Amino acid sequence: MEIKKNIKKPDLLKINSLGGVFNVNWALTNNCNYKCNYCHPDLRNGSIKAPPYDVAVDFVELILMRSNILGMTPNFEFGGGEVTLLRYFSKLLKHISENNGLVNIVSNASKRLSWWQENFKYLSGVSLSYHINDIKNESHFIEVSKVLESSQNTRFHVNIMMVPERFDDCLAFAKRLQQEVRCSIALQPLFEGFGHGGITKKYPYTPEQEQIMKDFRGRPELKKHPPSMAELEVNYADGTTENLSTFDLIANDQTNFVGWDCYAGIDSLVVTFSGDIYRSWCMQDGPIGSIYDENIELPTHPTKCRTKICQCGVDLSAKKVNTRLVSNKQQRIAVTQL
Hints:
The chain has about 350 residues and is an alpha/beta fold. It has helices at about 55-70, 90-100, 115-120, 140-150, 165-180, 205-215, 245-250, 315, 325-335, and strands spanning about 10-15, 20-25, 75-80, 100-105, 125-130, 155-160, 185-190, 190, 200, 230-235, 240-245, 260, 270, 275-280, 290, 305, 320. The strands form three sheets. A nine-stranded mixed sheet has the order 7-6-5-4-3-2-13-14-15. The protein has a six-stranded antiparallel sheet with strand order 11-10-1-17-12-16. Mean pLDDT is about 90; it is low at about 330-338.
């Protein structure tokens, strides 16, 4: 995806996702069969028991009902850990799909090929992560990628985790994948502090390596997909409108919404490994409840943003309104009508 350059614009007034979906970003399990050293143990050591199937389904049913009331499409994004390790995961995917929900997952592609062949029809989106120091079979990763490429209903992306000391090997695999499979590909720089107390700094890369990571792209998919949650409609104070992505906002340092009304919790939710429910990953208002609660009351009003940097995709895609500017604009209109 081409990132739009930072050009001086009028003040932002409102941001809306084009997808028309109710997003649930769910850290379903912290159990993983890979032990990447750039991933904090809390994200992969299996220290937290995944919810039983009936608990997961009860929460899914709540989201299906909430989405129906709002006239939105429920969209579940499952991550981990490695979600495909859950024994009931296929059953959960099928249940959501059969109830008109969308499912997106993040995976390392290690599950057997037959699993992907049996379940790709339930997957609206897949983001595979290539971990060069842990992967057992590169050809298997390619074969899984071809299965996902062939699925007309699956948006498919690959992140190549760029280990600095094996940069050339990672790049070589990215080029092989680019030749053999149509999908978007990102050469993902690594950061210290990921998954534990916040990102601190980027791993060391040469200027040449930095440029290679910025420039590399996959081959576009030959599929027609509805807008993703990352695609946004941005309204400006001068009345103009522009379509941007969450990546555009990050690249252009347009991620400070302090004082705005944020609708995270109304059009999106996040769920932690332990089952705690929050409006967003900034967690600024504390937990709403838990998927283990018998009665869960979800927010019905926006919150005032107090977080200076909004950096997670699901957080950025939540509706946001610059109420100060909206109020000023309404006052100006009222004056002109007197």
